[in-house]
């Protein structure tokens, strides 16, 4: 899997065509990994970009294309994957992820306080059924690998003993203010690759995903100082940190200069071990994508989605 990808979530305000143009710019300068999802609603536009490049500027084998099954399709994964393949104009994915561990549908753009009356807690048996459908996709050749997203150690502990095909990756929020060291160690111990979303702290994320307590890794004094020292943007320093510590960032940008800077960052010499220790100390344990819309009880704190006491929250 290429060690950096281009994200494609336009945070509800970037037009689909502009996201497709960003993917075009990224592939043109050397990105070989594109992170898509059905719920971003722009796979058809990205598919046109991919069709333009594949066989012309790159071969299909050179590209790593990921997508994700949305929460309303956990019981018909194959149909969702087939639709994504049609939209992306490809025969098979390199990676297909279960976007969230909950089958709790909420409409795009909905308010953070909106709750699905049918929402339920994580059900290990139900998720295993979804996972079995994911495994069938590999057997049918519709995707080369399968993975999870937004999973916790507690949930993985219940899943892994029963799988025939283990998740190759877990996509998760990762940036200098939310480093998730325990989960990363767990994944490494189980040969599951961490993919980091919001590697820059998602400065353009939708209003619904912001709270007063949120912090910004690009405004962190350690990150700012290192960026100044090396003459790079703090955003780029965040991307560099990700590849230095060995996970795969998928930064989003529609700005060709930033798209280029993020890729270039991966080719710079690593931060020193002292610099990496300083960034480790800068962790604020600040989750930005809290997932409130997946909650299943009234007045439930969002932290219950993340099994912080070590067991699956019921
Ligand atoms: N699995 C999941 O549940 C999940 C959740 C969230 C996100 N994701 C994936 O992760 C991807 C990345 O997350 P994200 O888009 O939320 O956040 P992000 O990549 O942390 O931040 C993107 C923002 O950073 C800015 N930016 C990028 N490079 C920059 C640079 N070099 N200098 C200055 N600013 C820069 C962009 O603005 P410009 O456009 O102006 O450059 C954009 O507003 C998404 O697109 C999506 O593919 C997955």
Characteristics:
single chain; 314 residues; alpha/beta; TIM Barrel; 8-stranded parallel β-sheet; 35% helix; globular; binds NADP nicotinamide-adenine-dinucleotide phosphate
Describe this structure in words.
- This protein is of the alpha/beta class and 314 residues long.
- The protein has ten helices and eight strands.
- An eight-stranded parallel β-sheet has the order 1-2-3-4-5-6-7-8.
- Helix 5 links the parallel strand 5 (143-149) and strand 6 (169-173).
- 41% of the residues are buried.
- The structure holds NADP nicotinamide-adenine-dinucleotide phosphate.
- NADP nicotinamide-adenine-dinucleotide phosphate (NAP) is lined by residues 7-9, 35, 99, 149-150, 171, 197-205, 233, 235-236, 250-255, 258, 261-262, 289.
For the record, what CATH class applies? Alpha Beta
Supply the number of helical segments: 10
CATH domain topology: TIM Barrel
* Strand proportion: 5-15%
| Heteromolecules bound | NADP nicotinamide-adenine-dinucleotide phosphate
Helix coverage percent: 25-40%
Number of strands: 8
Give a quick account of the main beta sheet: strands, pairing sense, barrel closure: 8 strands, parallel
CATH superfamily: NADP-dependent oxidoreductase domain
**Poorly predicted ranges (pLDDT <50, ≥5 residues)?**
none
The end-to-end span amounts to: 35 Å
Following the backbone from N to C, one meets helices and strands in this order, namely: EHEHEHEHEHEHEHHEHH
Quickly count the domains: 1
| CATH architecture assignment | Alpha-Beta Barrel
CA radius of gyration: 19 Å
Mean pLDDT across every amino acid position: 96
**Could you give the order of strands across the largest sheet?**
1-2-3-4-5-6-7-8
Derived structural class:
alpha/beta
Shape: globular
């Amino acid at each position: 899997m290429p060690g950096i990808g281009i994200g494609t979530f336009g945070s509800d305000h970037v037009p689909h065509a502009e996201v497709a143009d960003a993917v075009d710019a990224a592939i043109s300068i050397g990105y070989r990994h594109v992170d898509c999802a059905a719920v971003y609603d722009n796979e058809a536009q990205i598919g046109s970009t991919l069709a333009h490049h594949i066989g012309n500027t790159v071969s299909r084998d050179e590209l790593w294309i990921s997508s994700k099954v949305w929460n309303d399709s956990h019981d018909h994964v194959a149909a969702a994957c087939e639709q994504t393949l049609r939209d992306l104009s490809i025969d098979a994915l390199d990676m297909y992820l279960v976007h969230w561990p909950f089958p709790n549908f909420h409409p795009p753009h909905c308010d953070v306080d909106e709750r699905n009356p049918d929402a339920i807690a994580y059900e290990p048996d139900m998720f295993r059924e979804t996972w079995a459908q994911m495994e069938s996709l590999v057997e049918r050749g519709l995707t080369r690998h399968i993975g999870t997203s937004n999973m916790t150690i507690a949930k993985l502990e219940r899943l892994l003993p029963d799988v025939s095909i283990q998740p190759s990756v877990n996509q998760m929020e990762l940036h200098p203010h939310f480093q998730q060291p325990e989960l990363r160690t767990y994944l490494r111990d189980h040969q599951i690759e961490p993919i980091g979303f919001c590697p820059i702290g998602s400065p353009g994320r939708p209003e619904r995903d912001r709270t007063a307590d949120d912090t910004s890794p690009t405004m962190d004094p350690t990150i700012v100082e290192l960026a100044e020292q090396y003459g790079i943007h703090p955003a780029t320093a965040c991307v560099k940190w990700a590849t230095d510590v060995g996970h795969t960032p998928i930064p989003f940008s529609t700005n060709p200069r930033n798209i280029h800077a993020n890729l270039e960052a991966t080719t710079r010499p690593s931060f020193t071990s002292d610099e990496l220790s300083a960034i480790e100390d800068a962790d604020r344990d600040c989750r930005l994508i809290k997932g409130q819309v997946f909650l299943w009880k009234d007045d439930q704190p969002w932290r219950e989605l993340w099994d912080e006491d070590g067991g699956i929250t019921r």
